[in-house]
Amino acid sequence: MTMFNQPRRTRQFRSRSVALIAATFLSVAIVAPAAPALAQAARLLPTDTSGQPMPTLAPVIKKASPAVVNIATRGTVTERAQRNPLLDDPFFRRFFDQPGQQTPRQREFQSAGSGVVVDAQKGLILTNAHVVEHATEITVTTQDGHDYKGEVKGADPGSDIAVIQVKNAKLTELPIGDSSKTEVGDFVVAIGNPFGLQHTVTFGIVSALGRSGINRDGGYEDFIQTDASINPGNSGGALINLRGELVGINSAILSGSGGNIGIGFAIPANMAKTVMEQLVKYGEVKRGMLGVQVVTLTPDYAENLGLKDTQGALVSQVVDGSAADKAGLKAGDVITSINGQSVKSGSDLRNRIGLLRLGETVDIGFLREGKARKATATVQARSDSGEPGSGGAAEINRGFEGADLNDAPGAAGVTVTSVEPGSNAAQIGLRANDVIVKANTAKVGSLKDLKAALKDQTSILLTIRRGASTVVIPLR
Fold this sequence. Notes:
Elements: E1 3-5, H1 18-31, H2 36-43, H3 58-64, E2 68-79, H4 90-93, E3 105-119, E4 124-127, H5 129-132, E5 135-141, E6 147-149, E7 151-156, E8 161-165, E9 187-192, E10 200-211, E11 223-226, E12 238-240, E13 246-255, E14 264-268, H6 269-282, E15 288-289, E16 292-296, H7 299-304, E17 313-318, H8 323-327, E18 334-338, E19 341-342, H9 346-354, E20 361-368, E21 371-378, E22 380-381, H10 390-396, E23 403-407, E24 414-419, H11 424-428, E25 435-439, E26 442-443, H12 447-454, E27 460-466, E28 469-475
Antiparallel strand pairs: 1-13, 2-3, 2-5, 3-4, 4-8, 5-6, 7-8, 9-10, 9-12, 10-11, 11-14, 12-13, 13-14, 15-22, 16-17, 17-18, 18-19, 18-20, 20-21, 23-24, 24-25, 25-26, 25-27, 27-28
Helix pairs in contact: 1-2
């Protein structure tokens, strides 16, 4: 079964034909004058016996590699034994001394990943949040073999970005590029420490942009997909362009075995930089909310609304008193841009708003009855239940991914307002207008109740009110 993995420990290697790569470089350098980075790299190198320049990325790698570091962590995690579903039945609970209780176990761990120095003077290093998760001891090792004690300046699991700081260290930094200018087909290089192999370099192209739905726990996702080999230990390493600029932080792979199969994902440098600025200043990311519930504008929705463009986020609900409400947005509007940048989908909108600072003014472009309009809103603090929409649903449980959930009126349950075809929510059998009233034996009156009822549960049965019928659905 194919699964998403954050690259850590499983071993699998992939090799490429040197001759094929060399031939590819040479053809690009000769046939495509529009690739000056490759051509320049070739001109700077010694020639072979025939007098022809030898294509290579060595100058770029030599410049960028010292900024990529190895991160070794130690820590302790608390594990719980798998919950027995019989404990949810009151009849069977009486046969146990401590009904519903589980004995936690402490387990020590060691892990390794990569990081990128982005500010040598301040000793700031970008990496993944999952690399430093639960770490009580962090050792940063530079390319020249020096070890430094690292301290987590801040970590944001939602974007999987963390900032480590080392003091009194001699470091080399990597310039941060503008990842918004990255295009499918661009050549990229991944540098990291897979399987503990220091400063391993792999080469490929950008395979796709704007990937989401990669992490099982949801989060803020706008991944760069690449076929440059990313393996366990590459997490937190650098994805650079041929100018030697950081365009992404390597984060995850798609694999059935845990090793690379040519589908890797990196967090765009622009997102990483925005998160880093808040982590350095506040120690956390203070996310805001607009106060709208949205679904991705599909071709069917666009046709129903008489729209030619099928990109955007369709507003299905506006929260009373929210920033969107004060800005004049209404249900049925289609948000097409934020601060002049086009909005592609509901998740794209969520990412944009979630990375804005509290109190920041945002310009919103939207369509109402086919006519283009503009509004200005001030980003507000998130409520306890979070921004309504599929993102919050996935954070409650991955099985809800693709569904929009909202509190039913009068604490009558949780309403499923929409379900995306083919999504996890659709596959388990959820439908629009379903009302979740119970999770196992716990009654559900709100999203908060639902989240609490599903905590630490491994076997879940949802009781659904569907019109005049009651349906029980197993949540996987």
